Known about the structure:
alpha/beta, Inosine-uridine Nucleoside N-ribohydrolase, Chain A, nine-stranded mixed sheet, two-stranded antiparallel sheet, 38% helix, binds alpha-D-ribofuranose, binds calcium ion
Amino acid sequence: MSAGPAPAPPLPVVVDCDPGVDDAIALLLALASPELRVRGVTAVAGNVGLPEAVRNAGHVLDLAGVPADLPLVAGLAGPIARTARVADEPMHGAGGLGGLRPAVPPRAPAPGHAVDFLARQALADPGELTLLAIGPLSNVAALLVRHPDAAAALRGVVVMGGAARAQGNITPAAEYNFHADPEAARLVLESDLAVRVVGLDVTRAALFPLEAAERLAALPGTAGAAGALLRGFVLRYRARYGTPAVPVHDALAVAALTHPHLLGWERGWATVECAGEFTRGALVTDLRTPERARRTDVALTVDAAAFTALLTERLAGYAG
Length: 320
Ligand code: RIB
Ligand code: CA
């Protein structure tokens, strides 16, 4: 009997992040996903300042036990067209990693700038590299401006950001990543990049429950550390919103790339409001006007149970 179709070769990805607890979980998930080959990590200011984002990403890569030669590169220290404003977001805890402060200093970043690193990676295999953009889109927008040829060589970009139908989380109209750098988000959505948007519409519908975090936290090694990060994340979210479960926003963007069938997608026109007094950073979509250019895929539904099971299983795999 035939063994069935051979598995597809792993997708090469670079993760652009602002760790952040959910960025940390997303990195651990991406590194534990056989569907992906992580070719590097780039850091951007957002949840924390750029130095802290680089530091925290280094700690997560050490925690994951990945080889020291996996490139970690620092990017923009703030938005492309506004003064930087680092989130004073208590959701991520002290230092941005839920208070996690390993005694061993984190791995050092590679020299150079993230935007130039992204360009080299994209041009090395035209049409193959996917960006997982799970922080403000400052680095991605800078790639479009500084290296348009490299941006055109990307296979696509999966973005954690926006809220097509749901209320925002930093203002009523806007989600944090798009609000932090709205000009960058608009540039990316209005570019020719193939963009998939994983926003609050789905991340808030796929809450990770406290009991699943507790089960992971009881495991040894990195699995237990991931569980502790998630447990603290849930407890802070419950303290603010009352629910014993938390949206692990960035991890769902990873799952959207490895398991797109877990989400329901609609393709349409999309951009980001940059000038509104109350609507800065709002994702604006038109998913129904036939003659409008439709090139952005927006996730509107999700199989929450399947996502929780996938994330739990893959993080548990770090228990050794
Ligand atoms: O709105 C959620 C997004 O903002 C996530 O990427 C989280 O890490 C924060 O950056
Ligand atoms: Ca993030």
